[in-house]
Amino acid sequence: MSGTGGRPSGEGRRVVVTGIGVLSSIGNGAAAFTRALRAGRCGAGPITRFDSTGFRQQLAHEVKDFDPADWIHHLPHRELGHATQFSLAAARMATWDAGLEPSRLRDQRGLVTIGTTDGEAAELEEIVEAEVTGGGPEGMDPTAVRRLPPHRLALAIVQELRLPDAAPSVVGTACAAGNYAVGDGFDAIRSGEADYALVGGADALARRTFAGFSRLGLVASDRCRPFDANREGLLTAEGAGVLLLESLDAARARGARIYAELLGYGLNCDAHHPTAPDLESVARVMDLALADAGVKPDEVDLVSAHGTGTKTNDVTEARAIRQVFGDDPPRTVALKSMLGHSMGAASALGAAASAIALARGFVPPTVNHRSTDPDCGIDCVPNRALPAPLRVVVNNGLAFGGNNASLVLGRYEDRHEEDQS
């Protein structure tokens, strides 16, 4: 088992979140996303992205009311796959939300890291179908072929926003990839290697992924009910979450609104099982994150869980949380009850929600809830948001293959001014 949490806490620059871009089944943009989180909105609905004929389950979480032309002004958006459109739009939203025109970033060193599970899986499906049906290379749509490379999820952001000194990269650590990407940006800002970072995750709904989870028997019949005694599984989803990170000094110098401070993160990979989580590894990644952040377990007010709604994940994660935080752990919520499981975007959307919750002082609920599984033993804040003066939030992302990532975010406080008082 390996693990890392970046540089030791207290070294390097303080890192803050100043912009949030979101595309999700419950709302697009930080303001709409915030309202939906407060309201406990669930974005499940009939699948329209692909033909779901023959599948027992017919529901997913799709992004609605999205016109790529509203956000993509320089690149030909019709030549971009859905996941790339999502990541690019979320990145532009994040700069707009931060009050930063991209032109102000062009003479700065930047990092653009996007996590994904599937990349442009829908394009791959189209290409494979053309080959299988006998079309051969001549039957393949050249536009679909150009959309396929997953590195475009980050490269297109650099090209569209015209950021000549930004390094693009894509992280493929499945459903923990969004947190991995945020950790990458955190290190770059903290160490001084970059002046800003646009980081997060994006995935589009894909028939291949839906079919895979369906064959595993992990798809719910109507709603995702994490930590519920009668939960059936997850609902697949799509979306994107991108955070704009800056150093605290830079944010204060321009009078930026600060959502939250990134305090630390942890990563590990146990390779325990292709799909099943390992309790010790999940506990270990939270320990790594807390150690990196210099935060004690009793200082954490909320855990934003991976919380898929599957039998194994929820019990394992809940037990790991109790192992780290004790028999009376912090409130633990599962945003996938509202958002569905958006794969590589999931933990990035969790990071965005955590930052919003810290800034706005509330706990998003776990919706669709009936009764908590006693084997989980956590307060999942059922169905209704709660006002709460949150100080520290832990955001988990757990992936197939044992790829785990945990972020620690804190309410922004000016420690320099506190020290002078």
Give the total of beta strands. Answer: 15
Question: Poorly predicted ranges (pLDDT <50, ≥5 residues)?
Answer: 1-9, 417-421
Biggest β-sheet description: 11 strands, mixed
> Percent of residues in beta strands?
15-25%
What is the quaternary state of this protein?
single chain
Helix and strand composition category: alpha/beta
* Mean model confidence by pLDDT: 93
Principal-axis shape equals globular
Helix content: 25-40%
Give the N-terminus to C-terminus distance in angstroms. Answer: 44 Å
Radius of gyration: 20 Å
The number of distinct helices, counting runs of at least 4 residues, comes to 13
Run of helices and strands: EEHEEHEHHHEHEHEHEHEHEHHEEEEH
Describe it:
Helix 10 links the parallel strand 10 and strand 11. The protein has helices at residues 30-39, 82-97, 121-132, 142-147, 152-161, 177-191, 207-215, 248-253, 279-293, 311-325, 336-339, 346-360, 415-420; strands spanning 2-4, 15-23, 44-46, 59-61, 110-115, 166-171, 196-203, 239-247, 260-269, 302-304, 331-333, 362-363, 386-387, 392-398, 403-410. It is an alpha/beta fold. The termini are far apart. The strands form 3 sheets. Strands 1, 2, 5, 6, 7, 8, 9, 10, 11, 14 and 15 form an 11-stranded mixed beta sheet that branches. Helix 2 packs across helix 5.
Blueprint (SSEs and pairs):
Elements: E1 2-4, E2 15-23, H1 30-39, E3 44-46, E4 59-61, H2 82-97, E5 110-115, H3 121-132, H4 142-147, H5 152-161, E6 166-171, H6 177-191, E7 196-203, H7 207-215, E8 239-247, H8 248-253, E9 260-269, H9 279-293, E10 302-304, H10 311-325, E11 331-333, H11 336-339, H12 346-360, E12 362-363, E13 386-387, E14 392-398, E15 403-410, H13 415-420
Parallel strand pairs: 5-6, 5-7, 10-11, 10-14
Antiparallel strand pairs: 1-9, 2-8, 2-9, 3-4, 7-8, 9-15, 12-13, 14-15
Helix pairs in contact: 1-12, 2-5, 6-12, 9-10
